[in-house]
Amino acid sequence: MDIHKALKKYFGFDNFKGLQELVITSVMNNHNVFAIMPTGGGKSLCYQLPALLKDGTAIVVSPLIALMKNQVDAIRGISSEHGIAHVLNSSLNRGEINQVKQDIENGVCKLVYVAPESLAKEEYLEFLKSQTISFVAIDEAHCISEWGHDFRPEYRNLRDTIRAIGNLSIIGLTATATPKVQDDILKNLQITEADTYKASFNRPNLFYEIRPKTANVNADIIRFVKQYEGKSGIVYCLSRKKVEELAQILQVNGIKAIPYHAGLDSKKRARHQDMFLNEEVDVVVATIAFGMGIDKPDVRFVIHHDIPKSLESYYQETGRAGRDDGEGYCLAFYAYKDIEKLEKFMVGKPVAEQEIGHALLQEVVGYCETSVSRRKFLLHYFGEEFDAVNGAGADMDDNVRNPKKRFEAKDDIKLMLEVVRDTNQRYKAKETVNVLMGKENALLNSHKTNEQAFFGSGNHKTASFWMAAIRQALVNSLLKKEIETYGVLKMTKEGLSFIDNPVSFMMSEDHKYEESEIKDIIGISKAASATDKVLIKMLKDLQKTTAKKHGVPPFAVFQEPSLEDMALKYPVSISELSQIYGVGEGKARKYGKAFIALIAKYVEDNDIVRPDDLIVKSTGEKSALKVYIITSTDRKLSLEDIRSSKGISLEELIDEMELIVYSGTKLNICYAINEILDEDQQEEIFDYFMEADTDSIAEAVEEFDGDYEEEDLRLMRIKFLSEVGH
Q1: Which of 465, 506, 589, 651 is a Cys-bridge partner for 406, taking CB atoms 3.0 to 4.6 Å apart?
Q2: Strands annotated E in 463-503
Q3: How many Cα atoms occupy the beta-carbon half-sphere of 383 within 13 Å?
Q4: Phi then psi dihedrals of residue 88, to 5 deg
C-alpha cells in the first residue's frame, strides 16, 4: 500500500508533517535511520506507519512504561485487532506474556514495545530470534549517550542485544540531541552511515520566560494557573515530595490538579495520566517521569518550579506545550541556590560523570542569566542558528519583549579574576565574595587573606553583584569550578588572558518589572504586583513597638518575610493573618490584633482592593508533619529519628521546625541541643539573639567567626524563639 493512502487509512491525515515522509521512505527501504525531531514533530508516526505496512513485528525500545501504555492504546484505537500492539515488560504476568508471544507468532502484532532491560532477557531474545522482525526502533535515543540529559546505562548495550536477534535495520529517534550527543548515538549503535534527518528545533508558538524564584513561588504559580482556568498545563518539580506538596496546595486553592511521579503505584499513575488526557483535571504536577510520549496536543502552559539539570530536559519538557501549534507559555522559576543543590547531588559520583553534570548545569545557568534572545540561545545549543530579528517566533521570550539593561563590567570582572588568582585559587564563590567585600571570618583569617592589600577591594559593589559576576564569568569560561573539590574557583587560560588583556564584558541586570508591566504580562492587579512599601514601613514600626512592649527582639514578634507577605495580601482578620507566611494561629492570636487593625484602616483610607485570591490556603499534609514534629520533640525523640522516619533531610526538618516556632508554637528541643552544645555555649548564643537587631543566621555565623556550625545556630534560634517569642 502507498504510504500516503496508509497515512489516510490508519491515521486520518491527508499530508505528512515536516520530515515524516522522508524518514518513513527510508525505513520502508530497510535503511538505518537517525531522526532528530522536536517534541510535537510526529516522531512516533515515523515507525508506527512502516510497522503497520511491513511484514513481521517491529520492536520499539522505550524507556518508560507510561510512554509504552499511551502509544499502545493509540495504535489499538486505529485497529479492530486488540493484539496489533503490545508491551513486553516487567508489569506482565505469565498469561499475558504468552498472549503477546502468540500474537507475534500469528502475525497479528505489528509493534511490540519493550524496555531495554526486558529486551536483553534470554527468554525474550531466544523467542524473538525465531520470529519475523521488521526493524528495531529506539525511541528517546538520547538515553544512549552519557552526554544526553537522561542517560541510561542499559541503553549502551542495545547494539549487542539487537545483533543477537538478527541483522536488523535500526531507526533511532530523539527530540533533543546536541551535535555531541548525535555523534555519540550513531557511534554506539554502529550506524554512522544512517540516513540522518534533523528537523528545526524552533517552536515559534512557545513563549519562554524565566522569573526569579522567591519565597512566594507557590502564590506566583497559583496566580499564573488561575489565568488559564479550564486549560491544560503541567508543573514540573525535581522531587516527589515537592510534587505531592504543590499538588495539594493547588487543590485546596480551587485548581483541579493531581500529582504524578514514579513513587505512585502503576495503577494510580495510569489513572492520573488518563484523567489528564480525558480533561477530568486541568493540571498535572509531576517529576520528569511524566510526559514522555504523552500525546496531548492542547497543553497551554508548562511551568518549572525547579530548574532542570540540563537544557535538553528543559527543551523536551517545555516542548509538551502547544503541540497543536496553538499558544504555549513556558515559565520557569530560577534561583541559583537550586543549581547549587543540584551540584551537591553530584558529590560522590565518578569524576567523569561529575564533569558532564557540571558542564550541562553551566549551560542551564547561562540560559537563565542570558540577556540575549532565549530562543537564539536554546537553538544554538542544539547546533542551529536562529535569526533573532526575522526568525519565526523572534519576539516570543521575555528578554526580547522586555530587554534587560546591560552595562560594561570589564574592570569589575578583571578585579574579581585577580582576587581569585591572588588568593591562590583556594576559595569557593561565597568566600571569594567575602574577600571582595572585606568581610572577615575564621577561614579567611587562617590564610591571612584579611591582611592582603586586595581585601575589601570590591566593597564599592554589593555582594549579590559579585555573585552574579562570578556566575557570568563561569558561563563565559573565564573561571571553572574544580571537580575534585567541587565549588572551588579556578582560573582558566581565558581568564588569565583576560587579566592581561581585558576586553569588553557586558553584564546584564535582572528584570525589574514596573507594576504596570506586571499587569500587562501576567494580568494581576496593581495591589497584588508588589509589596506595599508604605504599609511595610508602618508594619515595621508596629513590630518594634510590640517587641518593646513584650521585651523581645522585633523578629520574635513577626519575621520580615511575614511583614512583606502582609503588605502583599492585606489580611484583615485573625484567620486571614494565620494564613500569612510564617505566622500561624498561635502567633496571629498573640500579636495579631493590632496588626490587622492597622491593615484594615490602611486598606479603607487608601481605597485598596484586597487581592483575596492571594491568600494561599495551606494543606492538611503539612499540618500533619508539623503535629508529628511537635509530638516527637515532646517525647524527646532524637532529631535523626524524626528526620529518617519522615524521609526528609535534617535541613528540611529544621526548616519545618522554624516554621512551627515562627507560627507561634513552642518546641522543646533543649534535649537535642544539650547533646551538641554545652551550657556556656548555649548562653553565649542565647544572649546574642536577645541583643541582635535581626535573626539572620548569616550574620550570626559572621559574628561568631565560624565558632559554630550554621545548623547549631539555627537550632539555638528555635530554642530562643520558643522561650522568648511566645
Answers
A1: 506
A2: 479-481, 489-491
A3: 11
A4: -135, 90
pLDDT in tens, 32-76: 999 988 766 678 899 999 999 999 999 999 877 666 777 788 788
> Which tens digits make up the pLDDT trace of 648-661?
888 889 888 988 88
- 180 with 231, same domain? no
Number of neighbours of residue 679 by Cβ within 10 angstroms: 8
- 168 and 217: one domain? no
Whether 106 is covered by a domain: the verdict is: yes
By the 8 A CB rule, do 36 and 174 touch? yes
DSSP element (H, E) containing 723: helix 710-724
Residues 24 and 130 in one domain: yes
Closest CA to 16 of 38, 52, 41, 39: 41
Together in a domain, 586 and 450? no
- Note the pTM of the prediction, 2 decimals: 0.58
Q: Does residue 515 lie in a domain region?
A: no
Q: Judge contact between 579 and 571, C-beta under 8 A.
A: yes
pLDDT for 206 beyond 80: yes
Q: How far apart are CA 62 and CA 150, in angstroms?
A: 13
pLDDT at 25 over 70: yes
Per the CB < 8 A criterion, the answer to whether 215 and 69 are in contact is: no
Domain boundary among 567, 583, 614: 614
Same domain as 360, residue 246: yes
**Angle (nearest 5°) at CA 614 between 610 and 615:** 95
At 59, which amino acid appears? I
182: left (phi over 0), alpha (psi -120 to 50) or beta: alpha
> What pLDDT does residue 523 have?
30
Domain that holds residue 650: 620-724
- Asked if the model's pLDDT at residue 495 lies above 90, the reply is yes
Q: Report the range out of 151-155, 409-413, 617-621 with the highest average pLDDT.
A: 409-413
Percentage of residues of the chain with pLDDT beyond 90:
20
Whether residues 293 and 163 fall in one domain: no
To the nearest 10°, the Cα dihedral for 700, 704, 709, 711?
A: -20
Q: Which of 177, 198, 219 is the last residue of a domain?
A: 198
| Structural contact between residues 74 and 277, judged by C-beta atoms closer than 8 angstroms | no
d(Cα 595, Cα 618) in Å, to the nearest integer?
21
Instruction: Please provide the DSSP assignment of 89-120 as one string.
Output: STT--HHHHHHHHHHHHTT---EEEE-HHHHT
Question: Would 400 be classed as within a structural domain?
Answer: no
Residues 495 and 568 in one domain: no
Domains held by the chain: number = 5
